[in-house]
UniProtKB/TrEMBL annotation:
Highest classification ranks of the organism: Bacteria, Pseudomonadati, Pseudomonadota, Betaproteobacteria, Rhodocyclales
Highest taxon of the lineage: Bacteria
Span within the parent record: 467 to 744 of 745
Signal peptide: none
Domain EAL: 23-277
Protein name: EAL domain-containing protein
Length: 278
């Protein structure tokens, strides 16, 4: 028994310390990147399925390390959340996204919407509203054109502080979307009272779509739910014409995905906008 125990220890310890080491390395790199402009923001088009015109953008953060390696947000956002660095990153993205939106509004994209992901940790912080107001004020954008993508758990939370924050955001005219909708555990009863404007169908349900199972698909259910509850619906991760066509026929008004446009830096986005107008 003793040798087994020792064997387990010998197996677990290096594994855990390797993970800790990775996290510390990642965190140190992230802090440096924050200072050295290693973090930047890309923008992905959101379109109306009826005529494919551009209606919005989603801001997504990117990290290029000093050695040129790209590290995806799925890898560094969780680490940033554990350390609190997520607030700094989140406000960096918000600030950038709002100023780019102001720029695009001035270049003929009146009414264009900008969606920004907000981590639960950033959202729950007592200074969140004040910092957000500051950023909106500095950029000069109309808050009605800003949308915050929040998690299902935040949208459902009944803590007084969270409810008040959601109300205040609505009061400012800011739109709220539930990201990755359908992947959480909210009940139908909770859904009804949910103070959000838009449900975002997760790409996992979009890539599952096919003609045969369309009626029973989760995407179809979310679209109908949105119609019943008076919420807008957008589908993410649309990669094929078949998916776009099916979503449109199911009554989904808006979509986002590689089929229409990849997440792009500002200059590429401008070229994309020029092409889409031509
Ligand atoms: P998300 O918010 O669900 O974002 C959608 C992800 O799907 C993005 O990955 C996007 O690049 C990718 N995507 C877009 N269209 C397609 C498509 O047609 N097919 C496929 N397969 N994928 C597509 P990305 O940029 O790697 O971001 C991953 C996640 O990291 C995001 O998931 C979001 O949860 C988080 N994230 C990204 N930027 C931020 C940020 O500024 N703040 C916070 N808190 N989280 C962020
Ligand atoms: Ca999102
Ligand atoms: Ca998603
Ligand atoms: Ca996500």
């Amino acid at each position: 028994a003793k040798s087994t125990q020792r064997g387990q220890l010998a197996w677990y310890t290096p594994e855990i310390s390797r993970q800790t080491h990775d996290r510390v390395t990642l965190l140190t790199g992230l802090r440096t990147a924050m200072r050295a402009e290693g973090l930047f923001v890309v923008y992905q088009p959101q379109i109306a399925l009826s005529d494919r015109r551009l209606i919005g953008l989603e801001a997504l953060v990117r990290w290029r390390t000093e050695s040129g390696e790209m590290i995806g947000p799925d890898r560094f956002i969780p680490v940033a959340e554990q350390s609190g660095l997520i607030r700094e990153i989140g406000f960096f993205v918000l600030r950038r996204a709002c100023s780019v939106l102001a720029l695009l509004h001035g270049e003929g994209c009146q009414g264009l919407r900008m969606a920004v992901n907000v981590s639960a940790i950033q959202f729950r912080h007592p200074a969140f509203l004040a910092e957000l107001r500051q950023i909106i004020g500095d950029s000069g954008i109309d808050p009605c054109c800003l949308e915050l993508e929040i998690t299902e758990s935040i949208a459902m939370e009944d803590a007084v502080y969270v409810r008040e924050t959601l109300d205040a955001l609505h009061g400012m005219g800011i739109q709220l979307a539930v990201d990755d909708f359908g992947t959480g555990y909210s009940s139908l009863a909770q859904l009804k009272g949910m103070a959000v404007d838009r449900l975002k169908i997760d790409k996992a349900f979009v890539c599952d779509l096919d003609e045969a199972g369309a009626d029973a698909s989760i995407a179809g259910v979310v679209i109908q739910l949105g119609q019943r509850l008076g919420k807008e619906v957008i589908a993410e991760g649309v990669e094929t014409e078949a998916q776009a066509d099916l979503l449109k026929r199911m009554g989904c008004p808006e979509a986002q995905g590689y089929l229409f446009g990849r997440p792009m830096p500002l200059d590429d986005l401008r070229a994309w906008i020029r092409r889409s107008r031509a």
